[in-house]
Structure formats: structure tokens, C-alpha cells
Write a structure and sequence with these properties.
Length: about 200
């Protein structure tokens, strides 16, 4: 796990000169949305506009109308440790003795499952353990935000342009198919499940 992180650190340093820094990217909140929308709408006006612009069933439209704007969905975007810290700081903060101990325990407890995933999908156990631990503390931190409210708020504010609007459309589609419920909880940016 530590070797994987060291390798990744070297890759990040090597590519840093050719990439736009994440800090700069985070400050570039508004991109060019693909759908033309009227400027300066209230959240209620945006909800009506979004409903008109998309093919939605009655339940999806009702869900959108029931949502409230949540400014707490916007604030974390600018405070993400992945954005505010460099790679070394981020890894040093996350990879403490407790994390490593839990990763080793999970590796032992789920050895067969992890090896089965490796054989089927060609993703190694160390990668899965690292993602599982970083994203949800091995399933102990799953988020406390309503994902529909979070996505609607991020979409309304055009955080990352069409990215969150597209995520909102996908979540609405899953809701329409009965795969998500209206009270689905997740991260501030709508990540759900053990791997967010």
C-alpha cells in the first residue's frame, strides 16, 4: 500500500508541470454548460427550468420540486483535502497507523473476495483497499447529505459546469427506475456506498 502511494507520488510530481493545478481548477467553478439557461435564476426558477429542459416522469418532477437549495453542498468543494493539500501532505494525513492496521485486517478478512475481484476485473487488492479506506473509512463514513438535494444545489450553482448536472440526471434516472430512493444519503457531492 505504501509502495503504491510512493509510486503515485512520483507520478504526480512528474506530471505536475503539465497539469493545471487542482487548486486553480477548483476556483474555476463555472464552465460552459451545454444547455443554455437563463442567467441569474432563483433556485425555484432553476427547478422549473430543469424540469422543462429534461424528459422526466411525474415522480421525478415531484422530487425536483420538493428539493431545497443546500449551500452546505457547495462549501466542501473548495475545502477538499485533495485540492487544499499537496499529494505528500494528503497521504501523510490519511495513511496513519490506524488506517494501515484496518487495511491489513480488511485484507485478511476479505482475502478471497479481493482475489476474486482481481481475477475478474484486474484490479489489485491494494488498490481496492486504498480506495475503500480513503473514500469511506472502510464503510464507516458513508455521508449525511441527501444526494438529490446536493446534486440539485451543485447543478444550480453550475459547480464544474455540466458535471453535476449530468450526475443529477443520472441519479434521477436511477430514481425513476426504482434503484435510488428520494431520501438516499451520501457524501456532499452525492457519492454513495463503500467506494463513494
Amino acid at each position: 500500500l505504501l509502495q503504491s502511494c510512493k509510486t503515485r507520488e512520483d507520478e504526480v510530481k512528474k506530471n505536475e508541470q503539465t497539469r493545471v493545478s487542482q487548486k486553480t481548477a477548483a476556483k474555476r467553478v463555472i464552465e460552459n454548460p451545454q444547455k443554455t439557461r437563463p442567467p441569474k435564476m432563483t433556485f425555484a426558477e432553476w427547478q422549473n427550468w430543469f424540469i422543462k429542459e429534461n424528459s422526466l416522469d411525474a415522480n421525478q418532477r415531484e422530487l425536483i420540486k420538493s428539493l431545497k437549495y443546500n449551500p452546505k453542498a457547495i462549501e466542501p468543494y473548495f475545502k477538499q483535502p485533495e485540492v487544499t493539500k499537496d499529494f505528500v501532505q494528503y497521504v501523510n494525513q490519511k495513511l496513519d497507523k490506524n488506517f494501515i492496521s484496518l487495511a491489513l485486517s480488511k485484507s485478511s478478512n476479505h482475502k478471497d473476495l479481493l482475489l476474486g475481484i482481481k481475477q475478474k476485473f484486474h484490479v489489485g487488492p491494494n488498490i481496492l483497499l486504498a480506495l475503500w479506506g480513503l473514500e469511506s473509512a472502510f464503510g464507516t463514513v458513508m455521508g449525511h447529505a441527501n444526494i438529490f438535494e446536493a446534486l440539485a444545489s451543485l447543478s444550480y450553482k453550475e459547480v464544474r459546469g455540466r458535471f453535476f448536472s449530468k450526475q443529477f440526471e443520472i441519479a434521477l434516472d436511477l430514481y425513476g427506475k426504482g434503484l435510488l430512493n428520494a431520501k438516499q444519503m451520501g457524501s456532499w457531492a452525492s457519492g454513495i456506498g463503500h467506494f463513494q
